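Minutes, project check-in
Item: structure for the 260-residue chain
Input as provided by the requester:
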Amino acid sequence: NRSSSSEASTRQLHIGVRCSRLTFQIQTAIWPYFNRPTCCVSVAGIVCGSSVGKIYSCGFEHTNNEGESIVCSYALCETHCRQTFWDLLFCSTLTPLRQLKKNGIIWLGCVAMVAAAGAAYTPFIKTALMIVGCHPYYQCEFENCWAYIDQKFALAAFLSIAVLILFGIGYPMALFLILRQRKSLLETTLGLPEYSERYADNGHIRPEEWQRFVLTDVSALSGQYRGLTYKWIYFPPILVLLKIFPLLPAVLMEPRTYIG
């Protein structure tokens, strides 16, 4: 009996190893609140039941005979997950696809916009500064520059100044305002008197609560502060502005050689 029980436990340990529907998510003590996956591995009659950390879950939705929507509750914790390298690779690919299905196409669009804004910031600002500063690179295109403003240069200068104001200053300013609003909401919500400073000390969020928030935040801006502490939440807009300063000497300083 002991041998058969051990074999049954071993089989249960490896159930789901080849399941191609398993995806992982980082769970905390308070998230997710509904439909919380827990490890269903049973060893010697004792169910693991782990629900904190990286949990691999099926989450497959299907409809039963009565027409009710049911979500598969099968899940494995990181300790009991026995997947091969290729299974884990497929799991890593399937996870963002399931996250996209859960959050919707608008979420993907917002994430793409934030990523595109961060990638385009430096080249856009560099080009605008070069045009406004009459850089020799554009001397063939705008020969007289500010000395004689023709229609072509006037349009280019107007668009460049608009980019510098709306994108160069507006983007980090908007990022700062959004982060300040998010910080204010966190402090107001977690610092309520009813919680008796359980989640915050003197209005400042505790580090462990900040980590819980970061792990469960799926917003488009979460990547901006995911690796930062709560005190450094305003660092992303500062870092964006710092990208301008290395460009100024190369773009605006008097060149040593001229074309013409």
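Outcome recorded: Residues 151-190 form the longest helix (40 residues).
No further action items on this chain.
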